[in-house]
Amino acid sequence: MQNAEALTPEQISQFLQGSSGVEFAGQKRQEVYAWIERTLVAQEYHKQRKKRRGLIRAYLAKATGLSLPQITRLIRRYAATGKVEGQPCRKHRFPVKYTEADVRLLAEVDRAHERLSGPATRRILQREYEQFGKQEYGRLAGISVAHLYNLRQSAGYRKHAAVFEATRPSRVAIGERRRPDPQGRPGYLRVDTVHQGDWDGAKGVYHINAVDTVTQWQVVGCASKISEQYLIPVLEAMLHQFPFRILGFHADNGSEYVNHRVAKLLEKLLIEFTKSRPNRSQDNALVEGKNGAIIRKHMGYGHIASAHAEALQKFYTAHLNPYLNYHRPCGFATVEWDARGKRKRRYRAKDYATPYEKLKGLPEAAHHLKAGIGLAQLDTLAGAMSDTECARKVMAAKAKLLARAKSESPIPPRFL
């Protein structure tokens, strides 16, 4: 229609009556809003009486195809600003605190440490900034555990980012069947063995895992066979790696530990020998949890030939064990009792610390250390590199070691 915005009231009424069964559709929104504005100006909308204003609103709704409520909102906007314009989209967005660089840095830390729990990762980020002075960790050092998991689920983070053998029972009357009672003192070890599977009748390596009950100080060793001839030297080397005096040795009832040669070794070192009780799965739960969280996570479940035991032992001594004790935070539970007398374990954010931090926090920590070892010496080892630098070093050494084991493996590539 020509000059549609300048119709008289009589022409508008005739138009509405003649188009009662006709629906109109507008053009582009900018053009429709511009025509509505010209019509309101030409009709002098705000000078008209109520009946005439209703007629104009009906005319605008019919000619544009918009609803009456939408026409009313546009007229209200015209009255307030003198213009009929579309409003920009105003979606609420929270301010962004953590940048893409922070997300990428978090992904690198998770990759280096093989994605620890949220509280442990948060502790590492704090240590990188506060203890090792890495300025790029400034924002991540204050992140909450909940938001850390949110970042792990983001698209940006995702972009950057075997065979078991049951323990053989032993009837040898060696060791006392009871749970050790360290009474807050370090030096009471929980020990277990992890087998790396068989292939075509050939045994894989055996990982020996020893964890201190109080500090969670962990030493891992490796033997090519589980017999006493191969196990005793590994155990002696592992006991030597603990910085504090060993007071207790607790194992399950496997014959690799419950034998006279191991008992003689422990007796010579004045170490108390205890073993797990029947139907008490919690007696050795600490080290069994570490078997999955450390050994299986780093070594997997695939077969590793026994010929690589010595190389694995060197890798554990030089790389993995220092990382576990000086740079990998562990959760230390706070035990509470509810109204019914039931014990409940809670892991609070402030309870996460490395085993060395836990050792230093014990009363009279220096008193428990072996002769010739001091806290200053251990501080030097702990501060030699940051947590993530040490983790990257461990990952590089492990990748080289496993690549060599894979290349020399008798297993066909399709089974690896």
The CATH fourth-level homologous superfamily of the largest domain: Ribonuclease H-like superfamily/Ribonuclease H
Mean pLDDT: 86
Whole-angstrom Rg = 36 Å
Biggest sheet character: 6 strands, mixed
Report the structural category: alpha/beta
Total number of beta strands:
12
Q: What is the CATH top level name of the largest domain?
A: Alpha Beta
Going by CATH, the architecture of the largest domain would be: 2-Layer Sandwich
- In helices, the fraction of residues equals 40-55%
Strand order, biggest sheet?
Answer: 1-8-7-2-5-6
Shape: elongated
Number of domains: 3
Instruction: List the uncertain runs.
Output: none
What are the secondary-structure elements, in order, as H or E?
HHHHHHHHEEEEEEHEHEHHEEEEHHH
Total number of helices: 15
- The CA-CA distance between the termini, in Å, is 77 Å
Describe what you observe in this structure.
With 416 residues, the chain is an alpha/beta fold. It has three domains: 4-81, no CATH class; 100-160, no CATH class; 176-415, Ribonuclease H-like superfamily/Ribonuclease H (Nucleotidyltransferase, domain 5, 2-Layer Sandwich), CATH 3.30.420. Helix content is 44%, strand content 11%. It has 15 helices and twelve strands. The chain has a six-stranded mixed β-sheet with strand order 1-8-7-2-5-6, with helices on both faces. Helix 1 (9-18) packs across helix 3 (50-64). The longest helix is centred in the C-terminal third of the chain and has 21 residues, at 387-407. The termini are far apart. The model has no long low-confidence stretch (mean pLDDT 86).
